[in-house]
Write a structure and sequence with these properties.
alpha+beta; 551 residues; 58% helix; single chain
Length: 551
């Protein structure tokens, strides 16, 4: 036994077991997040139930969202109806009823004794709307212009889907017109206003310049009126048709087709149709914008903001970290000042992230950004341009936060390069700078990429500092668009990590937001893994390229 312990085999097995347990725990957590998040897009069957509550019998239509066993004593304390129940526990069901403008609760709990009957009838439609959430009921008719069509006789719902495709196409055209063409005109008008203001502050506003600005503004205004008329025509055309649907109250409700995103009949779908719908909903979640206080819709602005901010941070932190590591390892002497710098770098890695956020807000936003506004954007004051939180300040803050990781990783890579390589380069007549640029840095590039991978993994998941230096609940525009100078580093942005926090803790509809938290968390992990895999691929290529130099 003593020989076995002295051989080191127990510690090898213990390390392997610890790594295996950690790996299983991580994979299990990812599978849990994926299962809870991806099931959100699966079309659940819609139930029609006869329910008796407080002596009143009524019909409830909705999706079964969750089930749980609840102690009867707990329900007694809440004043629930316990008639006909025996035992210590009762099963209750969470039903998503939608129809929130006609029903008090978007979600409701029903105990098993309150459900008199339940079934999954054919013909129940789930109407996904742009506002007010889902609507459940039976499609009774379609109003096409001045003509009413009995949709109940349309077994394949072809007319409904045809009108829905037409309406969504017109709405997409209207949104594109408003966002790009009209948005570009508004942006140009604002630039003309700032140009005039700049001339006024410099006392250089001549009558000729004023006439030129007014002429350009008038032309833009005329273009705006033409586009506005076209926009109103699109909206009127999209509003032409209506959907008539009978809800759980037995009332006929008319829903304008321009408020309908999608209509599907989950009780009529087979497994392959449900799989196709699941894929369609998952893609729509990725490429669309959020709605209803972030409790519905997609997360594309958050994905774009996360990736854009991380890439900008990488562009900033990599040269700073590499230059600092080269100075410490190649130029600085082994003295007390160098040791103080190394201690400071190590201590920076242990500073809480929120402290970086406070520093970024005070130094980058208020001091540096305010100074930039005073020097270059006086015409915009008192409205700040760079003197308010934005994506550039968020990237700089996270660059400082992740700087120690890049420095330490790069310095370790530099230390692994044999001294003979440097001496051979110098002996052949190269200068020290040429040796660093052509020999040392390329050989250390895999270590630099390792530091960048670790920096990206940490920065992509940070939320606390971003809340102070640029992230918002809903950004009206992306940092990248078609207006000059195309990349707007001063704009605020959305972030997947903050989106998870906002949906999970600030949502007015907790039950609706819960699966979105899992779906967004899984998407954030996927984005981080994707960024890391891309960096790992680059690192492996570099390592293979310079492998012969290490031998």
């Amino acid at each position: 036994m003593n020989k076995w312990f002295k051989s080191g085999n127990p510690w090898i097995w213990m390390t392997a077991g610890a790594v295996s347990i950690s790996l299983v725990a991580v994979i299990g957590l990812l599978l849990l997040i994926a299962a809870r998040g991806l099931v959100y897009f699966w079309p659940s069957p819609v139930l029609e139930m006869e329910v008796k509550q407080f002596g009143e019998t009524k019909t409830v239509i909705g999706e079964l969202y969750d089930t749980e066993l609840v102690p009867i004593e707990r329900l007694k304390a809440s004043g629930a109806n316990l008639e006909g129940l025996d035992g210590d526990f009762v099963e209750r069901f969470l039903i998503k009823t939608g129809n929130r403008e006609y029903v008090n609760l978007d979600f409701r709990w029903l105990t098993e004794n309150e459900i008199l009957s339940k079934k999954q009838p054919q013909g129940i439609a789930v109407v996904e709307r742009r506002t007010n959430g889902n609507f459940y009921g039976y499609v009774e008719g379609i109003v096409k212009g001045d003509t009413t069509i009995n949709a109940a006789d349309d077994a394949d719902h072809e007319k409904l889907f045809e009108l829905l495709e037409r309406s969504n196409g017109i709405i997409d055209q209207a949104d594109s017109l408003q966002r790009h063409d009209i948005g570009g005109i508004n942006y140009s008008l604002e630039r003309l206003r700032l140009k005039q203001r700049k001339y006024e502050l410099a006392d250089e506003l001549t009558p000729e310049r004023l006439a030129s600005i007014e002429a350009d503004a008038e032309q833009l205004h005329q273009d705006y009126l033409v586009l506005e008329k076209q926009l109103f025509a699109y909206r009127d055309d999209a509003r032409r048709d209506q959907l008539i649907i009978r809800d759980m109250r037995g009332e006929l409700v008319t829903i304008p087709m321009d408020n309908v995103l999608d209509v599907f009949f989950p009780n009529e779908m087979n497994w392959f149709q449900k799989l196709g719908h699941w894929g369609h909903q998952a893609v729509k979640f990725i490429v669309s914008e959020p709605r209803e206080a972030n409790t519905e819709g997609g997360v594309f602005p958050a994905i774009f903001g996360t990736v854009f901010m991380v890439m900008l941070m990488a562009v900033i932190v990599t040269p700073l970290g590499v230059v600092a590591a080269i100075y410490l390892h190649e130029y600085a002497g082994n003295n007390s000042f160098t040791r103080l710098i190394r201690i400071a770098v190590i201590n920076l890695a242990g500073v809480p992230s929120i402290v970086y956020g406070v520093f970024g807000l005070g130094f980058f936003v208020y001091m540096l950004g305010g100074s930039i506004d005073s020097l270059f954007y006086q015409e915009s004051l008192p409205t700040p341009t760079f003197g308010s939180p934005g994506v550039i300040w968020a990237a700089l803050t996270l660059a400082i936060l992740t700087l120690p990781v890049v420095i330490v990783s790069t310095e370790e890579g530099l230390s692994r390069i044999p001294s003979a390589v440097r001496q051979g380069s110098l002996a052949l007549g190269a200068t020290k700078a040429e040796t660093l640029w052509r020999i040392v840095i390329p050989m250390a590039s895999p270590a630099i990429m390792t530091g960048l991978i670790l920096a990206v993994a940490r920065a992509a998941g940070e939320v606390a500092p971003l809340m102070l230096v640029g992230v918002v609940k809903l950004a009206p525009t992306l940092p990248l668009d078609g207006n000059f100078p195309f990349i707007h580093l001063e704009r605020k942005f959305m972030h997947l990590g903050f989106h998870i926090y906002d949906v999970g803790f600030q949502s007015p509809n907790v039950e609706a937001a819960r699966p979105l938290v899992y779906a967004t968390a899984f998407l954030l992990v996927t984005v981080i893994i994707g960024l890391n895999l891309a960096a790992i691929q680059i690192r492996n290529r570099l390592r293979e390229k310079f492998k012969t130099l290490d031998q």
